[in-house]
Specification:
Layout lengths: L1 E6 L2 H10 L5 E6 L9 E2 L7 H11 L3 E4 L2 H5 L2 H7 L4 E2 L3 H8 L1 H11 L6 E4 L2 H8 L6 E5 L8 E4 L2 H12 L11 E5 L4 E10 L3 E3 L4 E2 L2 E3 L3 E4 L4 E4 L6 H22 L4 E11 L2 E8 L6 H5 L3 E2 L2 H9 L9 E2 L3 E8 L14 E2 L7 E5 L2 E4 L2 E4 L3 E9 L2 H12 L2 E2 L11 H8 L3
Amino acid sequence: MRILVVGGGGREHALVWKLAQHHKTVFCAPGNAGIARTAECVDIKPDNIPGLADFAAETGIDLTVVGPETPLVDGIGDEFARRGLVLFGPMGDGARLEGDKSFAKRLMQEQGIPTARFEVFDDYEKARTYLADQLIPVVVKASGLAAGKGAVVCATREQAEQALRDMMVEARFGRAGSRVVIEQFLEGEEASIIGVCDGKRVATMAASQDHKRLNDGDQGPNTGGMGAYAPAAVVTEGIADAVEEKVFRPLLKGFDRLGIEFRGAVYAGIMLTKDGPFVLEFNCRFGDPETQAVLPLTEGDLGELLLACAQGDLAGRKPVKSDKAAVCVVAASGGYPGSYPKGLPVSGELFGSDDAVVFHAGTRIEAEGIVTSGGRVLGVTGIGADLPEARDRAYAAIGNISFDGMFFRRDIGHRGLARLSAGR
């Protein structure tokens, strides 16, 4: 099979790495320095939808897999379908699940999917008036795409008012923040569940936990994700069954009611509360950095699985989960998630081994070698028989890599490790 992966981050490197295990011809647009070792990189940006479709048609691509959310929301699925090209990822109407949080929240409400109480606002003064009567803490979310940074958990009323002002008045997230969702703060432990969907059924991969906060102990600002581990033991078989019954099945019924045939990855961010699992958010693609921890635990031919989804025929197929564990630690640039330098030389063991894979996220190749090109530069994934072994392998491998200003969290997987220590 000839496969095209769209994107150039750590998630896309993990997809290329997994797909190339069973398929010799893999392209990536635009790719990065790490991806270039496995796939043929093509200089087409993810937002150049006509260019990507032209390449797929002219090159005889059998399956296109879209990594980032923006081209999905912008309608790459519709363009490929119009040209008769096979693509793993929803069309624009299904991608609203991530691209418009107000749409997603209302769909959950209509389908009885457990989620936090919420209200949606297009008017700043009305939102501000509503906020004044809400219990603190509260969550303020930009309704549109905000690169994973548009949800602000506000511990004080002043923080909530500032978040609202940043989004609706100062336009910190551009048009994405012109509409906001104000919702109840939920207490519990978070987990991420990624499934692949053929429009009629969802088959899930290993549950994982992301680490959004910048610093150890879950302190500091939200980021795109500083690491992840899988499997997340907090997602027991009973909880997984509850998510299937109370989240994914009613979601598919809602799509059917709206005339949406969703074929692609569906990501559910779950809060495990004392009242059971509640949905924090849905995404319409593989998570990042969760994918870098989940795919190493996924056995078999990923390309055939995704092709079956794209063709609407997942019957009898599901991801095969290994009995190992994986821990992904992100090496980030100094200053991230704010402004940060680029073009810094990266040295060390940059391509890893069978039990410690180095996924490139923000790198490029220059004459002098590999340099940084993003805030999240690398995702180092340790794979082991259990969580402690996977953690040790990840941190041993990241210790062999360096660039000016590099930093990383040193407690990725801490909740899972604490659960193991407590015998739960």
